[in-house]
Amino acid sequence: MRVLVVEDEKRVAAAVRRGLEAEGFAVDVALTGTDGEWLSKENAYDVIVLDIMLPGINGYRLCANLRERGDWTPVLMLTAKDGELDEAEALDTGADDYLTKPFSFVVLVARIRALLRRSTPSQQLVYEAGDLYVNPTSHECRRGDVDIALTAREFSVLEFLIRHKGEVVSKLEILENVWDFAFDGDPNIVEVYIRHLRVKIDEPFHKASIQTIRGAGYRLAASGG
Amino acid sequence: MRVLVVEDEKRVAAAVRRGLEAEGFAVDVALTGTDGEWLSKENAYDVIVLDIMLPGINGYRLCANLRERGDWTPVLMLTAKDGELDEAEALDTGADDYLTKPFSFVVLVARIRALLRRSTPSQQLVYEAGDLYVNPTSHECRRGDVDIALTAREFSVLEFLIRHKGEVVSKLEILENVWDFAFDGDPNIVEVYIRHLRVKIDEPFHKASIQTIRGAGYRLAASGG
DNA sequence: TTCGGTTTTCAGCCAATGTTCAGCTTCGAT
DNA sequence: ATCGAAGCTGAACATTGGCTGAAAACCGAA
């Protein structure tokens, strides 16, 4: 799967690239609208991630140009928090979805997958570890056949853990992937959410699927604890 | 795998080179930012390790220049303990990760591997020596099919030994690789940890996989003792 | 605006881990 | 057989990392 990222803030570009590559996408980055336009003509991408504010050609135009020449590659627009983007305008120019900065990897990847699913149906992702079941698409979580209600954050943390089941993931990795990459609060928050998850998905079932590896991080037992 | 190390403190540069070569990387070292820039243009590296404070072009600039010309080789930034690096700034210029001095080889190598894994997913490393099994990714250790719980330090020491199974490794090497560069405590600590490991991975199984080579160091039997 | 749920901060606590140390044992050279 | 160096060991001590409950801040819906 090839993704083109057009984004001038290097930091965001690098972060997005990292996140997507970790997911197994092949990523090209363009730092200006002009480069982006050129790359999009040269290559066939499966998705284009497009910032609005760009040197050279801006995101709206670039997207409009694509559609103009009959290129219907799914486009995901990125936009700063306030104003800047008029949702209507984005969708008018032919974008398929948009995302407000700052956002977390988990959300970004989810949106991209959603776009891909539209163009290439099939393969809906669900994760399992033992009798633990997590479906990001429908936002469902179950242990055996007991439904478990999770808040958005709790869900993201669990999703990240289960995607890496059996591996140790450090608190920092969790923080970087689940929170905005701009997040600079107390890393203790990860511990707090681990606790919430344990209370919801482990303790009632007398399980211990979330293990602490002191000095290294946490690990979700691949077999469900 | 080719690594470029740009670092002006000769001592650190030499240490890093040694450590990485021992890991099987091909290492080029540049002592100034200018040299580093030139080398990075001439050759295709898999990772670049970049100090911030450099004569000639500094680390930030060098990294920014790379990205500017569309080179997205993973960059790991090195930084002195306090101030100097603003994490945000490092990531702004397009670095993929950063590491605060002093750091240990094991950590450095782990970070580099993590970066490589992002660009080339899959291949998770596990080590074996006879019936002894060590998996750094999941932080698991097993003798036969008995799980063994190790602390972070113990694990690092064992990881180092098993990566060099069959070879004699000196106490100093262990110290330099597992502890921080700057560690200046009692070298006896290595003996202490060897003891801990023997108690956990050998004695219960009536094995003697960690052998003492008097006057030279230790050796983990390649056949598992 | 108020309210309830969610997210985040905070501070104290506890236990696991890391480190030092001093005395002991083993080894090998003489 | 003796001696010194190297290594072993158990215990004491210091430090850190992680846990937890509660309070504060935040946010969106009514």
Write up this protein.
Two copies of one chain form a homodimer. By secondary structure, chain A is an alpha/beta fold. The first copy, chain A, has helices at residues 10-22, 33-42, 59-68, 87-92, 105-119, 152-163, 171-178, 188-202; strands spanning 2-6, 26-30, 47-51, 75-79, 97-100, 127-129, 132-135, 140-143, 146-147, 168-169, 210-213, 217-220. In chain A, strands 2-1-3-4-5 form a five-stranded parallel β-sheet. The longest helix of chain A has 15 residues, at 105-119. The radius of gyration of chain A is 19 Å and the shape is elongated. The interface between A and B is medium-sized, with 22 and 23 residues. The first copy, chain A, binds a DNA duplex (30 and 30 nucleotides) through residues 151-154, 185-186, 188-189, 191-195, 212, 214-215.
